[in-house]
Amino acid sequence: MEKLDEAKKSGLNKVSMTKLRSMLKKGVVKFKYEKKDGTIRTAEGTLKKSLIPEIDKDGGAEEDFPKDCFGYYDLGKDDWRMFIRKNFLGIIEDKNKK
User: Whole domain around residue 62: which residue ranges?
Assistant: First the structure.
């Protein structure tokens, strides 16, 4: 719980899942969420097709993930990842604004 409290206090920009999806479709967003094991994950992801390697473009459709999860392409892991929607902590940086 300490890690979660720490992340919440760090001034993250909390946005809706709809807004996050829209931002990711425009480009790269850095954000945080709590993993199932309770640790905090910082991710840099996208849903913009031109930023996703050709081999991975077929994955990531909304229907590919459970309804309570949010899927994104993780640029650090070079693979599709997901997190439980209620565990989303917020945006660190919208890299599309630069």
Answer: 2-97
Per-residue pLDDT of the chain (98 residues; tens, 9 = 90+): 445 555 555 668 889 999 999 999 999 999 999 999 999 999 999 999 999 988 777 777 777 888 999 999 999 999 999 999 999 999 999 888 76
- What is the tally of structural domains in the chain? 1
Q: How far is CA 23 from CA 9, 30, 50, 55, 87, in A?
A: 23, 10, 14, 23, 18
The DSSP annotation for 38-83 comes to S-EEEEEEE--GGGS-GGGTTS--GGGS-TTEEEEEETTTTEEEEE
* Element holding 91 (H helix, E strand): strand 88-94
